[in-house]
């Protein structure tokens, strides 16, 4: 099925929201990734971030930042972030040793300082979800401790970008969102062009990309698009699982691929298309995730 924009009026609106707590992503196959595979997965993401900052800070000068109305102190902070990512790379390389994967080639979406800022926010936020989602596969305690220490820095960076720079919320809800390895890979692989064939294969696969209209907000009914050609048999009823924190909110997807975004959502949300109204596991994932960031209380008012 190739999903195209519906030409009909949106007659079907999700009438109910099936609220359900979904256990943080568990893999549905029996192959448990090894510590080295997980560390190489983390290193792949750190290489990606490192390349993004190296390239971005080469492309955009201090004057470019100022011209984009970014504060004079902002670019220096990104230099610090770039140094952190470079340090994460060398740290993981030293832990993994000779099996450490090499950097890939990338195609980043940023074209100016502001899209550099929003891409940076997305990369750091997905990084947090990657580390928290992957933690369950680490068996060695010092790996768990060091990846927790990296996770915390990525969370601070993400919070700094969205609050100090984008003037929006510094956090999401009481819980951040641990993401399934394949869901992380679906987001990350979108900017990866190719990787060295000598790299250790990662225990991940990407699902078809899912996109929401730009600026979509909670409470709105919007049309989503995804390429479900790879799905062998698309079941009659699909859902959008809005994964946020330790749970997900399931909303039926209409036949025209429209969905009502729950008005209760705050902060960063990872929607996926599922064939289940209760699970967000790999075996029910049809497409996605997408990355949505709903700003709330941006002016500091206690509006809720
Ligand atoms: C998906 O995998 C889970 C185990 O992770 C299993 O409990 C569930 O029944 C599977 N669902 C389908 C639709 O195969
Ligand atoms: C959809 O998937 C098919 C098969 O994988 C591919 O050939 C096509 O280019 C994809 N289209 C889009 C828009 O991603």
Automatic annotation (TrEMBL):
Matches recorded under Pfam families: Ferritin_2 (PF13668)
Signal peptide: 1-22
Positions of transmembrane segments: none
Sections of the chain in a coiled coil: none
InterPro entries linked: Ferritin-like_SF (IPR009078), Rds1 (IPR039254)
UniProt keyword terms in alphabetical order: Signal
Domain of life: Eukaryota
Protein name (Swiss-Prot/TrEMBL): Ferritin-like domain-containing protein
Gene source species: Suillus discolor
